[in-house]
Specification:
Elements (H helix, E strand, L loop, with lengths): L3 E11 L6 E5 L4 E4 L13 E6 L5 E4 L5 E6 L2
Antiparallel strand pairs: 1-2, 1-4, 2-3, 3-6, 4-5, 5-6
């Protein structure tokens, strides 16, 4: 996997119990938020950045510059 992924959100869903989001990107990848951070706002059409973080984890950065941890589903 590349160190940095720049992609556009094409689908967005939110898990009701945890209030964490799942994004599908224009490259076909799907990523799930792994921490609850209400200040992270992502919308369809947003260009986001995903990069490798410490200890093998990944972080997603929103267009507003807010970061949250994510894992790749597919």
């Amino acid at each position: 996997m590349d160190t940095v992924i720049l992609a556009t959100v094409v689908k967005l869903s939110v898990r009701t119990k945890t209030n964490r989001f799942i994004v599908t990107l224009d490259n076909g990848q799907r990523w799930s938020q792994t921490e609850t951070k209400p200040d992270v706002l992502v919308g369809i059409g947003d260009q986001i950045k995903i990069q490798k973080s410490s200890l093998g984890s990944y972080k997603l950065t929103t267009p507003q510059g807010v970061e949250t941890r994510v894992t790749r589903d597919r």
